[in-house]
Amino acid sequence: MKLYSTIDRLDFRTGRWSSHVTRGTSPPLGPEGYFCTIRNNDIFYMGGYCGHDNCYHNDVNLFNTLTYEWNKLMSSSDIVMKRGYGGMVCMESMGTEYLVAIGGIGSTPTTYQSQYQYDQMVNGHVHTNEHNLLNLSTRQWIIPTISGQCCPPTSGFTLTKISNNKSVLFGGLVIGDERYAVPVNNVYTCQLESDTTIHWESVKGPVVPASVQWPVERHGHAITSIISDSPTLVMIGGQGNDGQLVNDSWLLDTSQYQWSKIVLPESVTGRKSHSLSPIMMSPDCVWLVVVGGAGATEWRDVGRGVKKPFSTCITDPNITMLIELGKN
Ligand SMILES: [Zn+2]
């Protein structure tokens, strides 16, 4: 496997990809599973997994999509657990914007924050529900206090912003019996209440009447928010309980937290660890762009009875898919 840190741009009107030369500081060295979010024309990248042993990062880099310039925002820090596969959003409190990084999986932390949990897996990697706030004006890290019912240590979930100070977390992997990771299908909301407090609520989970639709457990799915009367989340794909792709897609209405299933072709839904972006064409019509990802995990014998997970990247003609969602 090769890791890249190149920048490619998709023109959705022509469907063409183009490669770009970047400027500024050197780009992050192509780790996988980095935290990522956008604000205006900027893309923020934090940490990620290096691809060998249990080497993770926690520096923060910024890419400007107009100037194609990289900037290092934060160097490595001892108070933030080095990790990847968590969630990051940009939220606002009293006129100040913060990067909010939550959960994930990483190497043994340098600093254990007392209000968070750290679960070691059989392979030595550590799952956490650690939260970090980065004040974008002062460029200082804050370890916030949590109130309400926070998620347990989780990785591979989605964290999606639905208002200036509120986000929705769905799914991911938690540590189950025998210290192995198992997928879940819970929904939580988290709200930035002040510059130091995040309030969590658990939305009624899958323990609901059989008539109520609820997606199965998964990780490596993709969710994006489309704005109609109230924000609606669109979810595509992911990997389920038995290591198989879930091959489905759902809408989550964030006023009532009701799920409804939508039907999309398997060439779109049959993937995990992909990206999903909305383009609002009109109030009644949104285009969804699905890019990349991988197929189901296969456990292959690498000799001496040791099995390792492999999955194949999605290939052409299915790498970039465009779907139109109309009203109803
Ligand atoms: Zn490394």
TrEMBL record:
SUPFAM superfamilies: Kelch motif. Gene3D superfamilies: Kelch-type beta propeller (2.120.10.80). Keywords: Kelch repeat, Repeat. Pfam families: Kelch_KLHDC2_KLHL20_DRC7. This is Uncharacterized protein. It comes from Amphimedon queenslandica (Sponge). The gene is 109591397.
